Amino acid sequence: MATSSRAPLTSRLAGFGTTIFAEMSALATRTGAINLGQGFPDTDGPAEVLEAAVAAIRAGHNQYPPGPGIPTLRAGIAAHQRRFHGIELDPDGEVLVTTGATEAIAAALLALCEPGDEVVTFEPYYDSYAACIALAGAQRRVVTLRPPDYAIDPEALAAAFSPRTRLVLLNSPHNPTGKVFTRAELELVAGHCRGRDVLAVTDEVYEHLVFDGREHVPLATLPGMAERTLTISSAGKTFSFTGWKIGWATGPRALVSAVQTAKQFLTFVSGAPFQHAIAHALGLPDAYFESFRTGLQAKRDRLCAGLEAAGLDVLRPAGTYFVTTDIRPLGERDGRAFCLALPERAGVVAVPTVVFYDDEDVGRPLVRFAFCKRDEVIDKAAARLAGLRG
Ligand SMILES: Cc1ncc(COP(=O)(O)O)c(C=O)c1O
Q1: Are 270 and 103 in contact (CB under 8 A)?
Q2: In ligand 1, which atom is closest to the CA atom of 320?
Q3: How far apart are CA 24 and CA 40, in angstroms?
Q4: Distance 101 CA to ligand 1 centre (A)
Q5: What is the best residue among 21, 205, 245, 270 to mutate for testing ligand 1's pocket, by most ligand atoms within 8 Å of CB?
Q6: Which ranges of 121-209 would DSSP assign to H, the alpha helix?
Q7: How many CB atoms lie within 10 A of CB 345?
Q8: Integer Cα distance of 26 and 32 in angstroms
Q9: pLDDT tens digits, residue range 88-115?
Q10: Cα–Cα distance between 57 and 173 in angstroms, integer?
Q11: Could you tell me the pTM of the whole model?
């Protein structure tokens, strides 16, 4: 068959090949290694939420739902934001249901950025940020977070802004580092947004995974930020149904409406029966959210202990379900080579953090492991990794 001589992939997407998660999960499948690479739980979420999805399918909720999301889910999202964060939202106009946080991020960048606009974000960054900024024809301006504490450098933050800055894209709790931005750091970001009339888009998919008594502070709750912040989250992580892809964007009517305009041409609507089930899930009692958090905190401790015993330098996370390690104590320098060899060497798959950095020197020796797995899987992985010392 004749093909065009022009490369099929546009220049906007050149360099964004297969995501590292797909690549590493394929490696796990091929080698039979334990997959601590991709961030998905290996058990289902609450049985009653599963039953709610089945009931919704049987009840005939199988055709296109309303574009912004079914009313009960929008009301549930608004009630969740009030219950956990004290944020008041009108479910009619200030809440949009999306196909996971991933679609909300894409739709937000496509809707809010003109070609040539700049987006300030923090590295290491979740990989879809760079791709969606590129799809929107915008430019990323990256502020580097450095281990061990990944604190924001105020000078580097100030230097990332320019007259072309359209928005700040902030992820807290932060993947891959597990950092939870402090109120003081968020104030710093908010100060720039207010002072320069810049929007904020926040990715808070790990909002319920904050450990050791720390608090998750949504940027939208800081003074003067509600009117300029689009807050994104998702049911995938909070309820352990990452395959259902129900997410949401909330905020001022004008921002939500802009994002809905883009969303309607991306997916039009999002999975009808799962919306009913997540509406149920959002109404679970506080005890669910608390035991989810303490359960994951215990898994964090379990995997961190195993990684330490294996001789890795562990950067203990304050939130999310990832832990980053520095491989240099093992005499290793290159996380990518280490991760490619790890399935053969130890029967475990992890993710090289360097793929989330523009400044590859900072990320080169760092490797991320996911601990959202059954205890016996974590223990088995730890036992295998213990052999690395030798
Ligand atoms: C920081 C961050 N944002 C967004 C997502 C994707 O969320 P969803 O599955 O709801 O699209 C992930 C998933 O790993 C993530 O880590």
Answers
A1: yes
A2: 16
A3: 13
A4: 6
A5: 205
A6: 127-135, 154-160, 183-196
A7: 14
A8: 10
A9: 999 999 999 999 999 999 999 999 999 9
A10: 33
A11: 0.97
